[in-house]
Every structure is written in C-alpha cells, then in structure tokens.
Amino acid sequence: MLIKIANVSKSYPQPLLATPPAAIENISFDIKEGEFVCILGPSGCGKSTLLNLIAGFMLPDKGHIEFAHQQVSAPGPDRGVVFQEATLFPWLNIRRNIELGLKATGIKKTEHQQRIDAALQLVDLHCSQHSYPHQLSGGMKQRVALARVLALQPRLLLMDEPFSALDAETRERLQDQLLSICSQKRQTVLFVTHSVEEAAYLADRVLIMGPPPASLFNEVTIQRSHPRKRDAKELTMTILRLRTLLKELSRHVPEPEYTEAGVLPYAPTG
Question: Distance between CA atoms of 123 and 149, rounded to whole angstroms?
Fold first, then answer.
C-alpha cells in the first residue's frame, strides 16, 4: 500500500470549549499505488482536513499516517497538492511559475527545463508557456497549477476540489485531461469533491464521509470499462448509488447540539 491511514482524529481549538470535538474521528483506510480515490461528503465534513493531514501540513491528534512505509510528519515533494485556487505568481509567466516549484524543492537546475517541458506537454500548454496569469482563463490557470505539481513527479497527487470554480464544460474537459494523465503516468490520486457526478466519473473508489465528528460512512468500489464514457449506463448507476448512500447518510445525522453561548460545538472544516 502507498498510503495507510490508521485511526486518525483531528480537532481544532475553540475559545468556548475546553475540549473541542473532533473534526474527523477514527478514520482508517488504505490507498494502493496507481489508484484514483475520491473523498465525497457534505460541506464541513472534514474532507480538506484529511487531505491536509496526508499532505503533512498539520499533524493528527491521534492515530498515524504512513506514506511509502514512512510516517508523515511534514510536507514533501512526493505528495503534490493542487488547491481550489491556482495561486499563481502574476509577475511570472507559465514556465517560470512551474520552475519556481522545482527551485523550492531543491531539484537540480539541470533537470528543470526537461521537467517543465514534460509537464507542459501533459497539460497541453506548451504553446502558451510564455503567457502570464492575467492572460489565462480559469481552466488554463488550473492546468498550470497541475503542471507545477506534475513537474515535481510526485508519487501521490492530492487535489482539493480543483475544478469546483470552473464552468461545466471546462470542468469536464479538465476531468478528461486528468484521467488521461493518470493513465499515462499511472498516477496515484486522492481527490476531494462534493460533486457526486465528479466522484462517479473519476474514481476507482469513493470514500463517503459523514458530518462532524466525521468518520467514514461508506466505501464504493467502481468497476467500469475504459475509456470512461459520460453516457455509459454504468456511470448513471454509480451516480444513483452514491446519491442513495448520501441520502442514507442524511438520515443518520443527529440534531446539532448547541453550547450555552448558542454556537455549534464544531467548526466547519471543508
């Protein structure tokens, strides 16, 4: 297994609570090399928290996370993260934005140009490599952000709702491009989304998280033919299955408890 998450819990400090409830609680699962896993769940259920823990941006309160048989204790270039916002530097063109990531991780300068060229080719932006962020559409900016991570050649690609702000046509086009990249590179992906359709189309396996204190509510393995087709009957059936599980999840959600100050005893965490 490339990733092992064992009984992981995480809380966020809250001024009115001496012992804040867990944002995520006792979560355990594994991810195999080359697998595309989506985390699906309602807003505030801790999807982004889990992703940030695996990235090493913060540490769990309980449990442990292993990546390639090593405990995760800090960020590393072997785990590349693509966020919802592209976060490009406006004074640098596409090529230099990608190179900045390589410089930050200490990769030899002699490798830079080859890696940049390969990453640009993967996201089909070679012809626009000298353009600046203000000249790019939202979809192109996200492709640059993806190229910047791919240039690091990570073993794991962590994606936090990277297409959620895009229009439907651009979103579908980037989904197809991502699947093509994963097919070429046998890339392992952990992809956070709140879109049932996106999870059903992209994933080999979908993990459904419940609301805080979040734990894994269900897991769906998707068997399908390749290449994937949006009009395939199997995709429609997968979407219906995921929607049914989410409705079932909503029936298990307890009524929210309030403190004396009238605030919810947890903070939404993505």
Answer: 11
Note whether 34 and 224 are within 8 A (CB): no
3-state secondary structure of 107: coil
Q: Which residue has the higher pLDDT, 100 or 268?
A: 100
Of residues 17 and 146, more confidence is placed in: 146
* pLDDT tens by residue, 208-218: 998 766 688 89
Which residues are CB-contacts of 168 (< 8 A; sequence separation ≥ 6)? none
Nearest Cα to Cα of residue 68 among 59, 56, 57, 60:
56
CA distance 178 to 193: 14
Residue 199 CB burial class (10 angstroms; 0-12, 13-18, ≥19)? buried
Q: Are 40 and 206 in contact (CB under 8 A)?
A: yes
Q: What is the pLDDT of residue 140?
A: 93
Phi, psi of 194 (to 5 degrees): -110, 10
160's enclosing H/E stretch is: strand 156-160
The per-residue pLDDT for range 53-86, each reduced to its tens digit, is 999 999 999 999 999 999 999 999 899 999 988 8
* CB distance 52 to 78 below 8 Å: no
For 48-85, letters b (16+ CB in 10 Å) and e give bbbbbbbbbeeebeebebebeeeebeeebbbbbbbbbe
d(CA 51, CA 198): 17
Averaged pLDDT for residues 122-136: 92
Tokens of 67: 């990546």
Most confident segment among 77-81, 226-230, 246-250: 77-81
